What we know:
By secondary structure, the chain is of the alpha/beta class. Helix content is 23%, strand content 36%. The relative contact order is 0.18.
Amino acid sequence: MNFVSVRIITADVARLVTFYERATGVAATWATEDFAELRTSAATLAIASTRTVPMFAPGWARPAENHSVITEFLVDDVDRLHRNLRSLVADFVTEPTTMPWGNRSLLLRDPDGNLVNFFTPVTPAAVERSGR
Length: 132
């Protein structure tokens, strides 16, 4: 089995896609106006409209209500990314912080309020765990 993607349901696909394209530097591939994907070498972030929800089961997902999942991205330089995102992000949960496990992390909320962590391994052990 391979973990391949995370899908975010949103009321404004274009806004969320624009945010993630700017934050990650990855261009989205649009399937329809209701569905886009940002593909990385490790996994895909899918962004879908609330209009797609009834295709699966009405009411199974509601946008902007996540309070428990953190989507994470491994980046080359979290401090540089933080500087680049200042004009884009309204809610930084934490500024870049070196965590006890050796990652330098930046936790923020995307435009829908979903938690997103960008991190850079900075200790030898963290770098080794990341496979970099």
